[in-house]
Amino acid sequence: MTNVVIFGAPGSGKGTQSEELINRYGFIHISTGDMLRADIMKGTELGKIAKEYIDEGKLVPDETIVGMIEHVIEQHKDTKGIIFDGFPRTVPQAESLCEMLDKHGTEVHLVLDLQVPTETLIERLLNRGKQSGRSDDNLETIQKRLKVYENQTAPLAEYYKKHGKHRAIKGTGTVEEIAQRLFEHIDSLDQ
Ligand code: B4P
Fold first, then answer.
1. Closest ligand 1 atom, CA of 88?
2. Ligand 1 close to Cβ of residue 149 (< 6 A)
3. Tens digit of pLDDT for each residue in 110-150?
4. Residue of the nearest CA to atom 38 in ligand 1?
5. Does 88 appear as a known binding residue?
6. C-beta of 32 in contact with ligand 1 (< 6 A)
7. Phi and psi, residue 13, nearest 5°
8. Which residues are catalytic?
9. Ramachandran angles phi, psi of 45, nearest 5°
């Protein structure tokens, strides 16, 4: 089983590139952002909690996220690979993921960190906001999300560097060009 984390700032293209990887490798896609938005749409208790954080540009608490993801990993323990999109986003989430995968005799193999200049991130998210109707794609919330990323999520890159899993990827160019860069790293796992 191959486990790949797609990492990066808001708007770095995690969701976009996850699609490319699923199409090529047939891995399962676990996106915490998509899961939270689905719960918000359904109006569940989890969705009500998540909405308050997402609308404010904040991270949803670690215990909520870990509780949500635990059974999903359990369901997919026999799959050939998982793309983790937007998870983990904090060091405690990364430690929980490590424990969850360890229970199934596996681990995170690669962390692909999409690096995109801040002005491009803002431009992409504002563009998406015009069509998506996402409550967090407005300038004020985008700026809060970028700060949260810098303070709470970026330190996770150091954690994965220490574990030898981190790869920095240039996240600008066409979707296809960026995908090729990611494929090279995943393909090299087999060699
Ligand atoms: P996410 O849903 O993970 O969203 P994201 O970081 O905003 O976007 P992503 O990087 O996937 O961007 P995309 O490919 O869509 O999180 C949303 C919120 O949920 C978080 O702020 C947080 O509150 C909460 N949350 C989620 N996971 C959590 C966790 N683990 N812990 C706590 N809270 C959590 O790309 C953006 C735009 O750019 C798109 O419009 C796309 O078309 C465009 N784009 C992509 N690649 C491009 C390219 N190469 N060129 C031009 N445009 C491009």
1. 30
2. no
3. 999 999 999 999 999 999 999 988 999 999 999 999 999 99
4. 124
5. yes
6. yes
7. 105, 20
8. 14, 89, 128, 134, 145
9. -60, -45
Is 173 annotated in a binding site? The answer is yes
Probe target for ligand 1 pocket from 73, 124, 170, with the most ligand atoms within 8 Å of CB? 124
Binding site membership of 97 for ligand 1 (Cβ less than 6 Å): no
- Ligand 1 centroid, distance to 14 Cα (angstroms): 6
Percent of the chain's residues with pLDDT above 90: 95
Enter the tokens of residue 140.
């004020």
Query: Which is the CATH superfamily of the domain at 2-188?
Result: P-loop containing nucleotide triphosphate hydrolases (3.40.50.300)
Ranges of each domain in the chain: 2-188
Nearest CA-CA partner of 118 in 135, 143, 141 = 143
Cβ–Cβ < 8 Å for 9, 142: no
What ipTM does the predicted assembly reach? Answer: 0.89
Q: How many A from CA of 191 to the centre of ligand 1? A: 31
Give the global pTM.
0.95
